User: Fold this.
Amino acid sequence: MIRDKILAEIITIGDEILIGQIVDTNSAWMAVELNKTGISVKQITSISDDEQHILQAFADAEQRADIIIVTGGLGPTKDDITKKTMYQYFGAQSWKTDEETLTIIEKIFAKYNAPLLESNKLQAAVPSNCEVLVNDLGTAPGMLFRKSGKIFISLPGVPYEMINLMERKVLPIITSEFKLGSIVHRTILTVGVGESFLADKLESIENQLPQHIKLAYLPKLGQVRLRLSSYGNNAELLKTEVDAYIEKIAAAIPDNWVAKEDIPLEKVILNIMQSRGLTLSVAESCTGGAISQLFTQHAGCSSVFMGGAITYSNQLKASILDVKSETLKTHGAVSEATINEMVTGALVNFNTDYAIAVSGIAGPDGGQPDKPVGTVWIAVANKNKTIAQKFVFGNKRQQNIERSAVNAFHLLYKLLKSDKID
Amino acid sequence: MIRDKILAEIITIGDEILIGQIVDTNSAWMAVELNKTGISVKQITSISDDEQHILQAFADAEQRADIIIVTGGLGPTKDDITKKTMYQYFGAQSWKTDEETLTIIEKIFAKYNAPLLESNKLQAAVPSNCEVLVNDLGTAPGMLFRKSGKIFISLPGVPYEMINLMERKVLPIITSEFKLGSIVHRTILTVGVGESFLADKLESIENQLPQHIKLAYLPKLGQVRLRLSSYGNNAELLKTEVDAYIEKIAAAIPDNWVAKEDIPLEKVILNIMQSRGLTLSVAESCTGGAISQLFTQHAGCSSVFMGGAITYSNQLKASILDVKSETLKTHGAVSEATINEMVTGALVNFNTDYAIAVSGIAGPDGGQPDKPVGTVWIAVANKNKTIAQKFVFGNKRQQNIERSAVNAFHLLYKLLKSDKID
Assistant:
């Protein structure tokens, strides 16, 4: 099948997403992978495990898309009805047992010494007209159905099982069966300015963009990512063209962009510090590990990030970071004096080139008249220079933590940049 | 309007979700809030900023639901077309400027000393037939349209603006206009056993459940949440009934449930320790702050969680936790000897009643023949007892971090439970 644009839809089945008990990270992951292969995701739909609703969603998706990927509802329990609904939708005449799946099920239960129940064995039964996508990490196999030139794929909702099946079975099948057009995305990360400011600076470039290139503004917590997406047949040509526009955009906002690729701000910092052979430690109070976690999610961070302290209590601020008890008594834990001692404590005690310290009132409680919830002191330092700044955010705990982290990264980025110029 | 069941749909507009650049946390939050008021979410749909697709999605949703909430696509830039598409769908005749919104826009730009552009002022223009939901946190106002007895609401996609408008405007309007039936959800958290094991233990209870009560199994990383959902008109009665079934379920799996409410495992631990007046510290290596962050996301954790160390480097394991350099040299950082010294170091140096230590190879690199990627040592301790256990997970970094955290919590939970019994 040769087509200009191959469209996919993702349907997730189950109440979990509709009642908000889980966030749909599966679809985001699949969307990224499908886009990489040049397949556009037309729609992502979450529906409940209700037979009529599932049948309708299948029929709607079949009208719009070439590939329909369905996740969830494959468990062994009563609320899981995806398999029997597919049996009905694709007009299967009988069930077949997939022996390879049955062997996997038996192995899994043997490994965990768990009793193998009849409901577990039934996981190996599939509609006779499907191609089985053997799931070697779990008990629910994937299934592939063909109907009117469209491909339907059913995958388990457990993230690592879904990912494994996508990587090993689904994506190879799709890319071999469809002759795909190309999509090229590139992103510039900006920090510290708003969407409208950028749109104004980029107006003339945006007006020059050819029809097949789209510019999107993706704002998030004091950062805006600018994403160029280009659609066409010649991937090389698209890339050259997009690369040129990326350079134009960067040149139009020289003080605002921090990366010409789609990486988070803390990864920008890790890359700069790694290239300069610098080390970093942290002293986190109100962020409670969020900053460390952002760094350490990146493989290979250990050449830069040495670690640090989570000093939630004043006692630990004193014992690990050598913050003086008079300082805490006189100025309080959320103060310029304390943050300066915290960042120095990290720098000296953890023996790193740079350090970050954060102390604030994340809320929702703990505010005082002169220090309302959302008051946060952030310091970054190297041996020669310390920058400390006070922020007053809002009253949402998680948001205050995230904003503190982003602003700490931005301060450190500026310090690193100024050190380069000096 | 009096109806047995009020249905809502959520439509998100914009490429970000469809290309997987962001995860749809907005819809999850809205779903939780709508469910709390007794409104069921029938479908969540993510579509691109394509006019025809938006119009079709509106028409489809109007067929199925009473309330349609649309987020995104309200920015000042060219790719934002939600407002003009709504203008068309609802047959508006003209635009009106919302003066209150214009004042807010002017204030926001004055506060940040940013130049007020024409595109920013245009944010205050709305279709003349909408009710404006003034957004005091941003420049894009919410809009409410009525059509054939259905309510359409458009909200900005910026999470805190959306949340603020939902809490202050949308939910009050909805609950006052619709006479809502009730939904009661209750959840039991289990750890360490699988879905099928639980389904087997609960089979007879599940068969007794009346038609209007549903039991769902929600598995995630070694935990399964069992959720009972009950639908009807008398909230008090539903609650009494669901409560009774929750007790029956708990009694059937006495060794497996850890909470009879929908809270995460680390919150179960915080609650137990808070009630016993106990304190906790951590020594995190491969989890890199993930454990601390899970604790500190909970307001009020500071009475239990004192903080700890992120000792990514061996140097910090030695200097902060007093791990002996011979131990590191002889056994390596990922070993029983090291983890025991780490947990003791945390307990003693941070002066807490309990401590958690984790050291492992999160991957994807750093594996050795005898210690493959995914090898993790976890220890929990109090003054009298240390439990150390080795785990071998897979080769996915983020998953290894999450599994390490969950298993650390499970070990600590078991230690706390045994201490109670002793």
